[in-house]
Amino acid sequence: MTISERERISILAKVEQLVGTKFYDPNFKGRNWRSIVETHRPRILSATARNGFEAAVNEMLRELGSRDSA
């Protein structure tokens, strides 16, 4: 299934805003959230298939390190 460019832009903007305001650590565990988003933006916005888009967003979110490996 494909996802339109308009949808990709909208979803990424919402994720960026929500994480920016609701992430449990206001200091983002010492990471630069804006820089992370800008690094991943091209790949996320170019992913036309839904599963590729979701994978790209998940990869971006993993950089926040909110989950410790077991």
Provide an overview of this structure.
The protein is mainly alpha-helical. The chain has one domain. The chain has helices at 5-22, 33-46, 50-62. Helix 1 (5-22) runs antiparallel to helix 2 and helix 2 (33-46) runs antiparallel to helix 3 (50-62). The longest helix has 18 residues, at 5-22. The protein is elongated and about 35 Å long.
Chain-wise SSE layout:
Elements: H1 5-22, H2 33-46, H3 50-62
Helix pairs in contact: 1-2, 2-3
C-alpha termini separation: 33 Å
User: Helix segment count?
Assistant: 3
Radius of gyration: 12 Å
Q: How many domains would you count in the coordinates?
A: 1
**Coarse morphology:** elongated
Which structural class best describes the helix and strand composition? Answer: mainly alpha
Determine the fraction of residues in helical runs and give it as a percent range: 55-70%
- On the 0 to 100 scale, the average pLDDT is 91
Q: In sequence order, what are the helices and strands, one letter per element?
A: HHH
Largest β-sheet summary: none
- Report the count of strand segments: 0
Contiguous runs where pLDDT drops below 50 for at least 5 residues: none
Beta-strand residue fraction: under 5%
